[in-house]
Design goal:
391 residues, alpha/beta, Aspartate Aminotransferase, domain 1, seven-stranded mixed sheet, three-stranded antiparallel sheet, 11 helices, globular
């Protein structure tokens, strides 16, 4: 439950952007950095590096309930999503996805479809942030073989998708199912023995591993011809050329093992802290509301709208809390959150929303500090906005 470098003064509530490294992951990564050896070399040092990679693959497979041979290491979830979408699109020429996906899915799908209007179908979501399973079923039945890509949990709201009807509908017509599980893996238990997705993307830095490393799960027997994005050596069974990032992969494996061990204690503890944050803020700021509150959500995500208080002004009024306005991945972009707009929020409401994301090292004391700082900042910014609004 301890984080490696943590306890800097501002309260860190931006785990969905990136989590601190778990101690086990930091130790394993550092240890691997001190060793030499290319995992493809056949001498002693190469074999040592390869066996560290094998171990990490097993550790990740244990977290996911899959077999190690079903995992391809990548530079992160963006690359894993690209690999899944590009390979599937090359085969089927059609992607069916949702309006609230991460840009790593949406932008990839748009780039692949280009101006071909019938190559991409983006399903809307309701105010809870979920797609209508009947609409999905009808779309899939109409189009047949395609890639259906629906995220496991949303990065901005934490809303969890019900993938069971998606999988049933897609498989009934021979479509493949990909899920971007970047925010889910390591936060809630997952068993790919029970959940019959064909492809799944993940990223180490969301569950306490290093940045810049992730994986794509490809279920054994999935009818998907090999389709690398970069060509070169035959690494990762030909799916991903390039010398393996041994320290990163080793850190990912150690984080996966620690997450697996801790998950059943961590998840309820984090839910309690998230509920404390939300209930106190709603009680003290009665005009605020939580997005996605009516859907099942990840333990550690609170997306809260503060009407009349723009998020950028709020965040600069509470420098002791590191949270995010919408998705950190699109920070700096002037457009409002596509996720919140898709859920029916106005542009103004979307722009007045903060995402707090908690994780394994978050403490109750930190949450209490964050509550006080947020209430002060919202009260201050709303008063300034009212004063400058004019008659
Ligand atoms: N998908 C989701 C849902 C994410 O939250 C993120 C990271 N913000 C990504 C994909 C991209 O992951 P990475 O940083 O590993 O490229």
């Amino acid at each position: 439950m301890e984080a490696a470098t943590y306890g800097a003064q501002p309260v860190y509530l931006d785990y969905n952007a990136t989590a601190p490294m778990r101690r086990e992951a930091l130790a394993a990564t550092r240890d691997a950095l001190y060793t030499v050896g290319n995992a493809s070399s056949i001498h002693h040092h190469g074999r040592d590096a390869a066996s560290r990679v094998d171990r990490a693959r097993r550790q990740l497979a244990d977290l996911l309930g899959c077999s190690p041979g079903e995992l391809i290491f990548t530079s992160g979830a963006t690359e894993a999503n690209n690999l899944a979408l590009q390979a599937s699109y090359a085969q089927h020429g059609l992607i069916i996805t949702s309006a609230v996906e991460h840009p790593a899915v949406l932008e990839t799908a748009r780039a692949l479809a280009g101006s071909t209007s019938d190559a991409l179908i983006t399903l809307p979501v309701d105010s809870k942030g979920q797609i209508d399973p009947e609409a999905l079923r009808a779309t899939v039945q109409l189009h047949g073989a395609a890639l259906v890509s629906i995220m496991m949990a949303n990065n901005e709201t934490g809303v969890i998708s019900d993938l069971t009807p998606v999988i049933e509908a897609a498989h009934a017509v021979g479509a493949l199912v990909h899920t971007d599980a970047t925010q889910y893996v390591g936060r809630l238990p997952l068993d790919l023995g029970d959940l019959d997705v064909d492809l799944l993307s993940l990223s180490a830095h969301k569950f306490g591993g290093p940045q810049g490393v992730g994986a794509l799960f490809i279920r054994r027997g999935t009818p998907l011809p090999q389709h690398p994005l970069v060509f070169g050596g035959g690494h990762e069974r030909g799916w991903r050329a390039g010398t393996l990032n041994v320290p990163g992969i080793v850190g990912l494996g150690a984080a996966a093992e620690a997450a697996r061990r801790e998950i059943s204690d961590e998840a309820p503890r984090i839910i309690k802290l998230r509920d404390l944050l939300e209930s106190e803020i709603l009680a003290r700021l009665p005009h605020s509301h939580v997005n996605g509150a009516l859907a099942p959500r990840l333990p550690g995500v609170a997306s809260i709208t503060f009407p009349g208080a723009p998020a950028d002004a709020l965040l600069s009024s509470m420098p002791n809390v590191a949270a995010s306005d919408g998705s950190a991945c699109s920070a700096g972009a002037p457009t409002p959150s596509h996720v919140l707009l898709a859920m029916g929020l106005s542009r103004e409401a979307a722009d007045s929303t903060i995402r707090f994301s908690l994780g394994f090292a978050t403490t109750e004391q930190e949450i209490r500090r964050a509550i006080d700082a947020t209430v002060r900042a919202v009260t201050h910014v709303q008063a300034v906005m009212d004063a400058t609004a004019g008659p």
